[in-house]
Design goal:
The structure is a single chain. The protein has a 5-stranded mixed beta sheet with strand order 1-2-3-4-5, with no helix packed on it. The termini are far apart. The chain has strands spanning 20-22, 33-38, 44-51, 54-63, 66-72. It is globular, with a radius of gyration of 12 Å. The chain is mainly beta and 75 residues long. A hairpin with a 5-residue loop joins strand 2 (33-38) and strand 3.
Length: 75
């Protein structure tokens, strides 16, 4: 186990941030865990949990000047 009971390797050791994927990266479809999803310009649009690339569990969606935090079910 890593920091605060999270599995080791969940956070990037150099930044303490979860891994980042562009929204159209095929590798995201098979990823499950804490993640940052980036748009085509590299801006973070989602930070939270995914299961096989779908928003699941606790997370935060970022849109221009707004953000939405909560629990997501297979979005």
């Amino acid at each position: 186990m890593g920091i605060f009971g999270l599995p080791s390797g969940l956070l990037r050791p150099d930044t303490g941030e979860p891994p980042a994927y562009r929204w159209d990266n095929p590798a995201l479809e098979s990823f499950s865990g804490m993640v940052r999803i980036l748009d085509s310009s590299g801006t973070v649009r989602y930070r939270g949990w995914v299961t096989q690339g779908a928003y699941t569990g606790k997370g935060q969606v970022y849109r221009k000047r707004q953000s939405f935090a909560g629990y997501f079910l297979q979005s």
